[in-house]
């Protein structure tokens, strides 16, 4: 993972908009977030996180044969941020972005998981990276207190270990697109002095509508993954939900009858980092010793689209790719 050095606290925000530490803490659980420096971008932060992921997987960047980046704040419309990261790391394999709002990392991870399981790719670098501070309206208290910048990354490799195959449920409801969107800057409304003057290059969000949507899909998609694998809450060692609002997470835990101590939370320190939130949480959970080898992990994300995705897998600490010969029978493989 990588997060920018600059910390923006709730107290700092009190000086910028009509808000209070008490309101933000009670309504969201957020105390502070990180803000990218001027020269930092989604690709620069993703490059650092990607480099660290490759190192901790015990492989050389040259062994990575595919890069998938989940981001809602790419450096450019094109080239893809994945291509920039691929070049920065000296990777020679393919590279593409996945855009599913805050769910982008989960969509990217499920794609990587299937491609690794098929035997087509051996070491897939999956990055979630965001500079949300660049698309904030810093005068809108209903959104600017929620988001932060950062990046996280994982390497997905085929593995013969584990008692079940990674299982993902991806969902979307495009009819809810206007609940969370960036009006201008795309081909529908290209940048012009008018769009800039009207502030159309910043996030628009119907907060309560997104809140209701999120509490519903987190529970439904988590239940669906558990039911497909015949797992109960007692079988899940660690639950990592997208860190958007602690109240959304609390409500989901209650409805799922899931013990809070097995749920990972770091929203207080980073706010909502969109596609980076789950890989940052994964990294911190691993560092904190909460992900032992073979642990059953359940992750769930949601965001613009509207989209959602839940996935369960077993965590492997040892890089499966280092000592094993390339698989010839993909049916024997499950990704780590
Ligand atoms: N400080 C003080 N007051 C505020 C603030 C603030 N920062 N923001 C809003 N308020 C006020 C509102 O103006 C409103 O005042 P009013 O009653 O006088 O009109 C009051 O607080 C309540 O506003 P609500 O919007 O109803 O507050 P709510 O309890 O719903 O909390 C929030 C708002 C935190 C945005 C919540 O709706 C939420 O978390 N929604 C989900 C957001 C989310 O998860 N988005 C990310 C999706 S992922 C992605 O793809 C980006």
The level of helicity is 25-40%
CATH topology: Peroxisomal Thiolase, Chain A, domain 1
* CATH classification, class level: Alpha Beta
Small molecules bound in the structure, each named once:
acetyl coenzyme *A
Uncertain regions spanning at least 5 consecutive residues: 320-336
Number of helices: 11
Number of spatially distinct domains: 1
Describe the structure.
The protein has helices at residues 10-14, 21-28, 42-56, 81-89, 104-117, 141-144, 193-197, 207-228, 246-256, 267-270, 277-287; strands at 6-9, 32-35, 66-70, 94-98, 124-130, 150-156, 158-159, 167-172, 180-181, 204-205, 238-241, 296-303, 307-314, 334-335. With 336 residues, the protein is α/β, with parallel strands linked by helices. The chain has one domain (1-336): Peroxisomal Thiolase, Chain A, domain 1. The longest helix has 22 residues, at 207-228. The two termini are 18 Å apart. Residues 320-336 have low confidence and may be disordered. Acetyl coenzyme *A binds next to helix 2, helix 6 and helix 8. Residues 19, 23-24, 27-28, 101-102, 141-142, 145, 180, 205, 207-208, 210-211, 214, 244-245, 272, 274, 303-304 line the site of acetyl coenzyme *A.
Structural topology:
Layout: E1 6-9, H1 10-14, H2 21-28, E2 32-35, H3 42-56, E3 66-70, H4 81-89, E4 94-98, H5 104-117, E5 124-130, H6 141-144, E6 150-156, E7 158-159, E8 167-172, E9 180-181, H7 193-197, E10 204-205, H8 207-228, E11 238-241, H9 246-256, H10 267-270, H11 277-287, E12 296-303, E13 307-314, E14 334-335
Parallel strand pairs: 3-4, 3-5, 11-12
Antiparallel strand pairs: 1-2, 5-6, 7-14, 8-13, 9-10, 12-13
The structure holds acetyl coenzyme *A.
């Amino acid at each position: 993972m990588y997060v920018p050095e600059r910390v923006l606290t709730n107290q700092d925000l009190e000086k910028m908009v009509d808000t209070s530490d008490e309101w933000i803490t009670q309504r969201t659980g957020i105390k502070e977030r990180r803000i990218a420096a001027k020269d930092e971008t989604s690709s620069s932060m993703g490059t650092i996180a990607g480099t660290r992921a490759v190192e901790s997987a015990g492989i050389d960047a040259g062994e990575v044969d595919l890069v998938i980046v989940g981001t809602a704040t790419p450096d450019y419309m094109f080239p893809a941020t994945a291509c920039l990261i691929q070049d920065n790391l000296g990777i020679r394999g393919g590279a593409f972005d996945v855009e599913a709002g805050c769910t982008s990392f989960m969509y990217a991870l499920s794609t990587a998981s299937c491609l690794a399981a098929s035997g087509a790719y051996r070491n897939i670098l999956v990055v979630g990276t965001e500079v949300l501070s660049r698309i904030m309206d810093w005068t809108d208290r209903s959104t600017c207190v929620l988001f932060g910048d950062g990046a996280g990354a994982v390497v997905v490799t085929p593995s013969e270990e584990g008692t079940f195959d990674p299982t993902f449920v991806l969902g979307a409801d495009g009819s809810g697109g206007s609940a969370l969107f960036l009006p201008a800057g795309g081909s529908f409304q290209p940048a012009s002095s008018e769009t800039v003057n009207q502030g159309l290059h910043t996030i628009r969000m119907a907060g309560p509508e997104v809140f209701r949507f999120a509490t519903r899909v987190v529970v439904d998609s988590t239940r669906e993954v558990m039911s497909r694998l015949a797992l109960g809450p007692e079988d899940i060692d660690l639950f990592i939900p997208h860190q958007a609002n602690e109240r959304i997470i609390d409500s989901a835990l209650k409805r799922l009858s899931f013990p809070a101590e097995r749920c990972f939370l770091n929203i207080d320190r980073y706010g909502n980092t969109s596609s980076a939130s789950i890989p940052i949480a994964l990294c911190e959970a691993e560092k904190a010793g909460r992900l032992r080898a073979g642990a059953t992990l359940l992750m769930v994300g949601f965001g613009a689209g509207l989209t959602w995705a839940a996935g369960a897998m077993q965590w492997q600490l040892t890089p499966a790719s280092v000592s094993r010969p390339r698989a010839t029978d993909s049916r024997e493989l499950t990704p780590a």
